[in-house]
Amino acid sequence: MTKPAPRRITIVDVARHAQVSTTAVSKVLRNAYGASPAMRIKVQQAIAELGYRPSAAARGLRGQTYTVGVMLPDMRNLFFADLLDGITAQLSGTDYQVLLAPGCNGEKAEARVMEAMIDRSMDGLVLIAPVSSKARLNTVARSVPTVVVGRHGPSTTYDTVTDDDVIGATLVVEHLADLGHRRIAHIEHQETDPVRLAEMPNAQRANGYREAMRARGLADEIDIASTSYTHEGGYLGTKELLARPARPTAIFAGADVVALGAMEAIAEAGLSVPGDISVTGYDNSALAAFGPISLTSVDQDGRQMGANAARLLVDRIGDRDRRTSHVKLTPSLVIRRTTAAPPAS
Amino acid sequence: MTKPAPRRITIVDVARHAQVSTTAVSKVLRNAYGASPAMRIKVQQAIAELGYRPSAAARGLRGQTYTVGVMLPDMRNLFFADLLDGITAQLSGTDYQVLLAPGCNGEKAEARVMEAMIDRSMDGLVLIAPVSSKARLNTVARSVPTVVVGRHGPSTTYDTVTDDDVIGATLVVEHLADLGHRRIAHIEHQETDPVRLAEMPNAQRANGYREAMRARGLADEIDIASTSYTHEGGYLGTKELLARPARPTAIFAGADVVALGAMEAIAEAGLSVPGDISVTGYDNSALAAFGPISLTSVDQDGRQMGANAARLLVDRIGDRDRRTSHVKLTPSLVIRRTTAAPPAS
DNA sequence: GAACGGATGGGTAACGTTGTTCAAACTCTG
DNA sequence: CAGAGTTTGAACAACGTTACCCATCCGTTC
């Protein structure tokens, strides 16, 4: 029953079994030039018979490992699951295996993970909403093909995939203004670092909100609570907004979880959604779609973003010197039951 | 700006810089026997000065890769995030890096992922609620240290960590019976394979339910809808239960998402929770705790399970021949607002 | 003072794969 | 049918690390 594992089959075993050189087997494995159809068949048969699988560790020492690493900041954000689905779907036909590192919150953890992936000679990296400094991202991208998702600002060393957060914020403001709202508040994720202030999606959403408000002649109504993109951030931000002299009739939360926190604070204050206050989220995560919640939210199409990231990464692995591409997708608004016309009053 | 990445620092560079042999450097890296304190310091200094990091690929060819792989069936189940937190927390002081493979639903995908991890010479595997055949699990465990989480049934080749699902189900039934319920129905995840029927948590929960009902003299009231552990499964299962002649006054859903589906179906039927029907979930995921939902659920303490799994794995990596351990944790019931006494009628 | 033994450090051969080089065996062309 | 090119497959040297073994060196013991 508990017999020790038999020695692993290596390329040498295959070569001997097929009566060819190891070089030949290697060529067949990689679809490389210089192997006749007859030899291909012979080798493939030997591989199948012996159940051979190449060792990625050994491969990594010379060539590729056929592994791409994905770094994401938060396992609990369901939007990232969509992204991941997009990545794996795009890669499913290929030989690449996706591996992710869990829990990379903060610059230090990110650095550790990126180094770990490089040390394991991964062929490419997808970095999702990284907070690391631009210098570090460039350093990483210089040593391994990299695609950065969800961070604005062009780069000459890595490709990017983003959602147009300014448009997303505009969609929300337009929708609420069309319903008749004027006092539309926003809960943002606080940002102090100047580079991130320009590049992170949360900052772009806040900018989009301000611009759209001005465009609708609501510049005087701009009202922002600066907390964080968490459930708690939404709760606290909303309490803050409700305590201000002119209470908002609509709250644009920067993320779905934030909107849920907001709804909790609103309920606690004895107010109703959307009767007294309309609420919108961002991300259109599974949470937003869930019946009893039914949150109006901005849909980013994570699958599409993920698929794009994977495509760009494979392209770059193929040619490291090609010019960088920057894909920007357009979000759409999904209207559900948390937004309505403001109370008559 | 876009200068090509400089050649990577290797152990040879460190050895030259510290004026010692590569063997010596290797010994220091691994805390191996045969290096004097003086040499340790000299080498560590050289490592720091050059910023050297060992190549995991090269290491894997001879020794360890300091990588453990985690396989989980569903990124969207938040309970697994807790598990993962437990694993990473336990491993955070060590040199091990955790990598996970996404989306392993079904036997084929599981097989692919497990092979991929073995091919990458990972030092150990944590398999979370795998559905693969026992024979395959044994094969995997024979070639790499393995801990299986959330699957009952002892093994002599791998360690296991489980939650006592029978107790969990009993807690639910007792709670509902104490409230005065007699018609307590259960929604289970359908299982046909005989081995899995004995080993999978869902089957154990159904068994626990039946036993507990009998123990309370409610054998005649046992009522099961057999669907799946999904939102849809909960919805359809509940519609089925509501259509039966004797409508249940309480529904024990096998998982939190199932309970949400159930609540949707109940609302659609014009009934209220817990006024007309009480509902309980299982897992105590973040979803259950969320205010507006506030679902009574069984808490498995995923962090603790994860920490145990990681500890067992490290122990087994240290000694592959030690006898297998099987840790079984006891769940607890978290009572919230979806359970109450049955309607008077 | 010779023989012994533990502590320390180095030499060397793997580990399993791939890129390069090279020779042999073919296939054309004039 | 000779010469030139074009396939085809093999030999071999990396890649960066670790396991194993051996050579010192020094202090102890008889």
SSE blueprint:
2 copies of one chain form a homodimer.
Chain A: H1 11-18, H2 22-30, H3 37-50, H4 56-62, E1 67-71, H5 78-91, E2 97-101, H6 107-119, E3 124-128, H7 134-143, E4 146-149, E5 159-163, H8 165-179, E6 184-189, H9 194-199, H10 201-215, E7 223-227, H11 231-243, E8 250-253, H12 256-268, E9 278-280, H13 286-289, E10 297-299, H14 302-318, E11 326-329, E12 332-334
Parallel strand pairs in A: 1-2, 1-3, 3-4, 4-5, 5-11, 6-7, 6-8, 8-9
Antiparallel strand pairs in A: 10-12
Helix pairs in contact in A: 1-2, 1-3, 2-3, 5-14, 8-10, 11-12
Chain B binds a DNA duplex (30 and 30 nucleotides) through helix 2 and helix 4.
CATH architecture verdict of the largest domain in chain A? 3-Layer(aba) Sandwich
Count of DSSP-assigned helices of chain A: 14
Average predicted confidence as pLDDT of chain A: 92
Strand percent estimate of chain A: 15-25%
Number of domains of chain A: 3
- Which class do the helix and strand fractions of chain A yield? alpha/beta
Spatial order of the strands forming the largest sheet of chain A: 2-1-3-4-5-11
Give me the Rg of chain A, rounded: 25 Å
Question: What share of the residues of chain A lie within helices?
Answer: 40-55%
**Poorly predicted runs of 5 or more residues of chain A:** none
CATH class of the largest domain in chain A: Alpha Beta
CATH topology name of the largest domain in chain A, in short, is Rossmann fold
Question: Could you tell me which chain pair has the largest interface and how many residues each side has?
Answer: A-B, 53 and 54 residues
The number of strands of chain A is 12
CATH H-tier superfamily of the largest domain in chain A: Response regulator
The helix/strand series of chain A, from N terminus to C terminus, equals HHHHEHEHEHEEHEHHEHEHEHEHEE
Report the span from N to C terminus of chain A: 78 Å
The biggest beta sheet of chain A is recorded as: 6 strands, parallel
